[in-house]
Amino acid sequence: xxxxxxxxxxxxxxxxxxxxxxxxxxxxxxxxxxxxxxxxxxxxxxxxxxxxxxxxxxxxxxxxxxxxxxxxxxxxxxxxxxxxxxxxxxxxxxxxxxxxxxxxxxxxxxxxxxxxxxxxxxxxxxxxxxxxxxxxxxxxxxxxxxxxxxxxxxxxxxxxxxxxxxxxxxxxxxxxxxxxxxxxxxxxxxxxxxxxxxxxxxxxxxxxxxxxxxxxxxxxxxxxxxxxxxxxxxxxxxxxxxxxxxxxxxxxxxxxxxxxxxxxxxxxxxxxxxxxxxxxxxxxxxxxxxxxxxxxxxxxxxxxxxxxxxxxxxxxxxxxxxxxxxxxxxxxxxxxxxxxxxxxxxxxxxxxxxxxxxxxxxxxxxxxxxxxxxxxxxxxxxxxxxxxxxxxxxxxxxxxxxxxxxxxxxxxxxxxxxxxxxxxxxxxxxxxxxxxxxxxxxxxxxxxxxxxxxxxxxxxxxxxxxxxxxxxxxxxxxxxxxxxxxxxxxxxxxxxxxxxxxxxxxxxxx
Length: 510
Fold this sequence. Notes:
The protein is an alpha+beta fold. The protein has 15 helices and 20 strands.
């Protein structure tokens, strides 16, 4: 049976390769004919450029160019100063930040502690992103250049969470002047200023001449929304695109073998998985969830979907995230074990269910492979391909059975990777789209959040991961290797492990 399934997977792969190589040669982006313009292909258009209105990846890739935060993380996830040049913690719940002097917003207004308080208070009141700094109790202005952040209880991951792209510092005057349209008229302190947005096509930015770290080498950045991976690669080949943020594994060799292009890779700290709505019958039965896990050969998915450019996930957080443990392991591919569990749960004859995915070749391909594997244990899996907005809406409201998901631990800390995904208080839009609930996991997540000792936090997160993996709310798929394609003359690009790349250091070599 295993041989039969592998032949089926290989057949699917040959079809996928044919499709990906036969993509339309539509124009992939605007010609980057001048050396002062960088054309970047994004996999989707932004939803909003208001960092407190959304937490989606396409938007964040743009907003990190426009805004700064109190602190940042470099390409190795080390916390470094940003708008705050220094800070101290006089007690377990208080952090005092000292702001850089002379920093200006894009509208010419000076950065003040009042803007920081306004921004963090606004973030706290946002339904979309408040959970990221949910432990912050209050923000106090000490003086024009000093701000105090006070948490409800000790919070070991505070600095990591303040690095999140949604913790951007906004100009109060600009936000109030723009009102409901602020998401289309962003004002930050970052290396690039907003110029224009043609919805569904492009977002144009220009260099901020007053940037506190110095003006960027590239004067203009254009983000193009190009959903099809094949078209992004064609754009690189024709020279119409300078950088493609997300390269399909199928296209990696094409880029490697092109002397005019370069492929830049790095292990990600993201987690790709199939989530299961644990409140829906029969997915509310852990035996069924484990059966589904045993029925799927994850290595075959890595080989087919990623062309081997990734590793099977062994935990809901990736290696490289603080708190990751190597004590957990994935469910082996064992069809007989899967059938035994199905019979034990009362589903010897299987059942019908569905998986929700949004567009993109890799997503639909993954769903089709899952469909084939689950059929072997009697599960009739319907694939529902929807628009991104419909996907987010359905999974937020729990109208799904299974869904194909991924989670980038933007903060680099297990609190963000596990609390938002598995705490019962985060069900729905906050991140827990499995609608998973385990009182012991809740208790340990709460305890880990309030612990400041790094070693104690690691022990708690290890126990949490062991419990979650045993409950099997997900099919843990893989941690992929990030691949960014670029023209050979693009230099200075240090890719970020969750794709929030900083283009301020990029230059074009003559």
